[in-house]
Amino acid sequence: MAAESSEVFNIGSSVSCVTCFDEEFQGEVLAFDPHVKLLTLKSASSSGRTSLYDIHMVNLTYAKAVHVLREAAASPLPTLPSLNLSKLSTRAKRSIDEKQRLIEAMQSGVSPIGQKLFLAICKTIEEVKWTGPNILVMGQVVISPPYLLENVREQKEGKEANGKTLSYIKKIVEKFHKDQQSISLNNGTGAAEVLTGTQ
């Protein structure tokens, strides 16, 4: 590699590179990793749109020539935004709880279709848990094996029954089975296998 500098490129410098394929790239240095000799350049978009840029990553090990056109002053790295630790902690706890619920389902012999339905409900409703092989949603609706639409009913001894909640959960279960049916048809699996949970 032919280089005018000591192989350290400051962010913001203008650099011109010729690769081993005789391609020439010129642009502003966005990043440089001296350990793997990877240079990232930003240049005006080849599409002509001023709101876009072309980004080129050049492995300097395979560059024929590198010329610094304009050296940028070394500046301290920008400060990174602080992390919201409470949000991260809540997200981690939720993820751990979800994994534990799935482990419980697998240990109690719940079918794969039941596990998939459980996950589908968890995407829209947080208050979902296993009670043996049954799925309990918001303490009000129970879905029992084989997890079909006719297996969705109100929980009698739970919270006060709410017809809207039951109808909403039924819509989720119905949509889940339609999606599973279309997936199985695309994959060549019979629809009956999906509906009976014997996948």
From TrEMBL:
<dbReference type="InterPro" id="IPR047574">
    <property type="entry name" value="AD"/>
</dbReference>
<dbReference type="InterPro" id="IPR039683">
    <property type="entry name" value="Lsm12-like"/>
</dbReference>
<dbReference type="Pfam" id="PF09793">
    <property type="entry name" value="AD"/>
</dbReference>
<protein>
    <recommendedName>
        <fullName>AD domain-containing protein</fullName>
    </recommendedName>
</protein>
<feature type="domain" description="AD">
    <location>
        <begin position="81"/>
        <end position="181"/>
    </location>
</feature>
<dbReference type="InterPro" id="IPR019181">
    <property type="entry name" value="LSM12_ABD"/>
</dbReference>
<dbReference type="Pfam" id="PF21166">
    <property type="entry name" value="LSM12_LSM"/>
</dbReference>
<dbReference type="InterPro" id="IPR048478">
    <property type="entry name" value="LSM12_LSM"/>
</dbReference>
